[in-house]
Design brief:
Two copies of one chain form a homodimer.
Chain A (H helix, E strand, L loop, with lengths): L7 H21 L2 H17 L1 H17 L4 H7 L3 H16 L7 E6 L5 E8 L2 E6 L5 H11 L3 E5 L5 H17 L7 E3 L5 H8 L7 E5 L2 H10 L12 E5 L5 H13 L8 E7 L5 H10 L3 E4 L1 H4 L6 E2 L13 E7 L1 H12 L4 E5 L3 H10 L4 E6 L16 E3 L7 E3 L5 E12 L3
Parallel strand pairs in A: 3-4, 3-6, 4-5, 7-8, 7-12, 8-11, 9-10, 9-11, 12-13
Antiparallel strand pairs in A: 1-2, 2-16, 14-15
GO molecular function (chains A, B): glutamate-5-semialdehyde dehydrogenase activity
Subcellular location (chains A, B): Cytoplasm
Catalytic activity (chains A, B): L-glutamate 5-semialdehyde + phosphate + NADP(+) = L-glutamyl 5-phosphate + NADPH + H(+)
Chain lengths: 421, 421
């Protein structure tokens, strides 16, 4: 199908032109047909689990021979359960309400023109990911559900697994009468193909990187296509002087320690000097297995606290480590966050409503929280049903992004022969 | 204030850092304060009309000496009326309802978390424009009204006029208690400063070019910052077989000839072979002073029709010239538009509702119209009160863009101590 002797730019241009044509078709497909395609794709993934596991075994063998880390091997590995989970995820996306065709607003002008803004598909989405082969299924499902064509480019370590999952998805999609070009997988693991995809503004409307920080950084650096992503999640939980100590301890320990490796975990705790239970909070974190790095005052609270360096305030640990700084009330906390935040998720813990509103208003992050754990920063927890990613960018979509963020709108003007004077 | 011996990159970094700080301040300013600043700015522009006209006279002298075209000299020239118009425009923006703080949606999750998406300012906007000094006032007003800081970079031919208008605007803004850095004018006309601004993704959230096609093309080519713009307006009016002839003639002549130089003017007319009054329509356009370039069938309708070349279907004339092609019904018209449109504004003229809906659904342009003149493609006509530009891009904002397009949103989560299980 694709001639692998061609240049990466030629390959991407060929795939991009196919995707543009397929996007026109899927934009016109009915909602029922798109949902049907995803249900059939899910079933095909289930049916082909043995072939997918066999393909994955070849990837695992190669990965082990190439000395991949245990963590990467774990992300790569597919077992029956994970494949069933991927299929169930595709079915969940099929069951989501479609944003397409919904009317954002409508007005009738004094001259009788009726104007409405209606949601339509975005067009062609590029997904660049690594290691976890399940992304092949779930990212494709979200893009397709929102009426888009998608070009997938997975990691070389997962190439056999990705091909097997892609083949199964395609079987369902084609059986539902949609063109196979709706979901294309870049057939080469040549890294230059990623570069070509990132520059293909003519063919791709949005790039979503799914993977570690180095992948996201490379994509943001090289892309000439708009990118939806977050680079860092240096999230803050601010414990105000008017916080309830039991709630503060429960929230901070959950925000930091529930899962330390996710982007919504708290990395820095700011404590109001007026908060009297700071030592107990520090001990609770240490007791939960967390390394605490603190300023001088925090170091004085417990001998196990290590000194925080200036770099700690700008570090996303993604680990059982937290930095803690004492601040002089909500304004000082806001000033620290303005200086150090990555604009992902920041929370205030307080019983003082006025201070809470001041914080929610002044902190300019994609997600701001009052008396809640930052670990809730997730599309599923936000009721979106799924998530293509979390955006810390300011344009188009911000915070957890699912189907709506994969659409745009058009203006529909209905007249009765009006001419402009 | 700015040392002109520094490099363009240093200058833009200095201005960008100031703009970022000013953006934090203006994001927190009350709606009343922002409106007050604009009303004071408008009054200052009126009061300083003599100084502005004197500055403009210096620009006009230079421009004449540099041999600028009559059209450019006309765009550059400021007289009492145009200055009064600029001031009135700023007052109109002050009177617009602010989108800030409006709640896009709100939900309460089963765990009791209350989530809402609330409109907030975008941040820092860069405006790159040429010739028309009034943009200094109207673009600044729109950005400020939506709570943003703005960096203006006007054309070298208008530098004295822009400085005088900027100084007047600042007087009002500072008198209202806002920092002067909310509206900065790049003090050098060195073209390298434009390049630096286009790459300043750290300091600028959105660039809006205002000017001719060559300016927009350069901005789109060089920018590493998101750009809101349209490059072309190759707009189509499709006359269906079921169109009312009187309405069709009135709409097409208006769509093409009302003002030929605006981006919403029709450039290509597609006529259904089943439409019986095509020759009369062709004669009406010629009678209105329009040059008609047609396919073979259209050439056969009137001896004055010139042959259309292949390039005509991809040409934005912005002049009293139209290309006309006969097509086989609405599907053929859609196929032509898919192949040639610039995704700006396309219209169908028909009394057949089903065909109209098919066209409105299938044509993927920022604006699609039924029985209306494409010349209505304008923020003022769309009830937005003003317009920072029209976007043919697909992300963030599409079609006419005013205050809402200069905002983003954040997620506000209000809890009562919820932790994530």
């Amino acid at each position: 199908m694709n001639d692998l002797t061609q240049t990466p730019e030629m390959l991407i241009a060929t795939m991009g032109a196919r995707a543009r044509r397929a996007a026109v078709t899927i934009a016109q497909a009915s909602d029922a047909q798109k949902a049907d395609a995803l249900r059939r794709a899910a079933q095909a993934v289930r049916d082909q689990a043995p072939a997918i596991i066999a393909a994955n075994a070849r990837d695992m063998d190669n990965a082990a021979a190439n000395g991949l880390s245990a963590a990467m091997l774990d992300r790569l590995k597919l077992v029956e359960d994970r494949i069933a989970g991927a299929a169930a995820g595709v079915e969940q996306v099929a069951a989501l309400p479609s944003p397409l065709g919904s009317v954002i607003d409508r007005q009738v002008r004094p001259n009788g023109l009726e104007l409405s803004r209606v949601r339509v598909p975005l067009g062609v989405i590029g997904i660049i990911y690594e290691s976890r082969p399940n992304v092949t299924a779930d990212a494709a499902a979200l893009c397709l559900r929102a009426g888009n064509a998608v070009i997938l480019r997975g990691g070389s370590e997962a190439k056999e697994s990705n091909r097997a999952i892609h083949a199964a998805m395609l079987e369902g999609i084609v059986a539902a009468g949609l063109p196979a070009e709706v979901v294309q997988l870049v057939p080469t693991t040549d890294r230059a193909a990623v570069g070509a995809l990132l520059k293909a503004a003519e063919f791709v409307d949005l790039i979503v990187p799914r993977g570690g920080k180095s992948l996201v950084a490379r994509v943001q650096e090289e892309a000439r296509v708009p990118v939806l992503a977050h680079l860092d999640g240096i999230n803050h939980s601010y414990v105000d002087g008017a916080a309830d100590p039991a709630m503060a301890e429960k929230l901070v320990v959950n925000a930091k320690m529930r899962r330390t490796g996710i982007c919504g975990s708290t990395e820095t705790v700011l404590i109001d000097r007026a908060y009297r239970e700071a030592p107990a909070l520090v001990r609770a974190l240490i007791g939960a297995g967390c390394e605490v790095r603190g300023d001088d005052a925090v170091q004085g609270m417990d001998a196990r606290v290590k000194p925080a360096q200036e770099a700690d305030w700008d570090t996303e640990y993604l680990d059982a480590i937290v930095s803690i700084r004492m601040v002089d009330g909500v304004e000082d906390a806001i000033a620290h966050i303005v200086a150090h935040a990555s604009h992902h998720t920041d929370a205030i813990i307080t019983d003082d409503g006025a201070r809470a509103e001041r914080f929610l208003n002044a902190v300019d992050s994609a997600i701001v929280m009052w008396n809640a754990s930052t670990q809730f920063a997730d599309g599923g927890e936000f009721g979106l049903g799924a998530e293509i990613g979390i955006s810390t960018g300011r344009l188009h979509a911000r915070g957890p992004v699912a189907l709506e963020g994969l659409t745009t709108y058009k203006w529909i003007v209905r007249g009765t022969g009006q001419v402009r004077p």
